Amino acid sequence: MKMAKLITEKKFNYTITEGKKKERIDVYLTKTIERSTRSKIQKLIKNDLVLVNGLPVKANYLVVPNDQIEVTIPVSPRPETTDPEDIPLNIVYEDDDLIVLNKQPGLVVHPAIGNHTGTLVNALLHHTQKLSHFNTPGRAGIVHRIDKDTSGLLLIAKDEWIHAELSKQFAAHTIDRTYYAVCWGLFKNSTGEVIGNITRSNKDRKLFCVHETEGKHAHTFYKVLEEYEFASLVQLNLKTGRTHQIRVHMAYTNHPVFGDATYGGRKIAYGSNLAKMKNRVDNLLSIIPRQALHAKTLGFWHPRKNERVIFNSELPDDMQTLIDKLKVNDD
After folding, report:
1. Is-contact 151 316, C-beta < 8 A?
2. What are the φ and ψ backbone dihedral angles of 98, each rounded to 5 degrees?
3. Which of the residues 93, 151, 292, 322 could staple to 105 if both were Cys, CB 3.0 to 4.6 A apart?
């Protein structure tokens, strides 16, 4: 499958508006450019890739109204083709229109900078040449995504019409998605919901956080299924589908997903810090070197068959073993 040739740099242009308070340019650009960090912006400035009114500046330059800022960001070239790769797939269901598969943890969904090969798309191209091209090159068939280290059910479209019809269901929030997660702590209420806008963190643009006014509306329902000494097995249903939504919302409620290094799930969040407790947590974390989060159930309206279908999946071995160990220690 051919991919379009990609440019080797991206350019951004900004004009500082009237009334803008003076602010360091590295701080301003870190908050303005998505997926940027202050260290990366400072590196661009050091290499004269940030110009103000046509001239290079230093990182401590204070922007003022009417400044014309031009930023050039080099882009690592990617291969011009996405090659089929013989990567095992756990296919739950397949027909002439779509595929439902159970993604293993550690598998990136589609090629991107730093992950040009070894992705789900590479595996799909080996499995079948019938995939929708509704998306940009490199994302053939991909209707929605889950994080690399989240396991579970994904929906793949085989043609453009199916893809468009399924996308409409995601946009209308009529897709049923149920996740299971092991979360830190015991919940005050056995059922509840978390409502909070999700946006990129100003401290680290790779991370997301809950914000009162900025970002996109996000809504998560939860139900506690089992309780252990210092953790809970939780069922989660998405009303919306934002990047890292479950992980961010659970961290926001002080119940981070167990094992989630990004959002505080790999440190003792509840209980004692005594050596005995630390050793026990370390042993449990060694079982699951990722967030204990699995997309367990997926339900949708099949566009061609004109009927509601629902698929379920078993928990992966690492997550089931973690739960079994938590149960044993509670007996």
Report:
1. yes
2. -155, 165
3. 151
Q: Which residues contact 164 (CB under 8 A, 6 or more apart)?
A: 134
Which residue, 124, 119, 122, 118, is CA-closest to 100?
124
Q: Determine the Cα–Cα distance for residues 274 and 272; give it in Å rounded to an integer.
A: 5
Q: Is 147 a catalytic residue?
A: yes
For residues 205 and 40, give the distance between their C-alpha atoms in angstroms, rounded to a whole number: 11
Mind listing the domains of the chain with CATH numbers?
9-74 (3.10.290.10), 91-172 (3.30.2350.10), 177-298+307-330 (3.30.2350.10)
List per-residue pLDDT tens for the chain, 331 residues long. 434 344 467 888 999 988 888 899 999 998 888 767 888 899 899 988 999 999 999 999 999 999 999 999 876 555 557 788 899 999 999 999 999 999 999 998 887 766 678 889 899 999 998 999 876 667 888 999 899 999 999 999 999 999 999 999 998 889 999 999 999 999 999 999 999 999 988 877 788 999 988 889 999 999 999 999 999 999 999 999 899 999 999 999 999 999 999 999 998 877 666 788 888 899 999 999 999 999 999 999 999 999 999 999 999 999 999 999 999 865 5
Catalytic residue among 26, 147, 149, 260: 147
Written as six digits, the tokens of 325 are 């160990």
Mapping DSSP onto H, E and C, the string for 188-207 reads CCCEEEEECEEEECCCCCCC
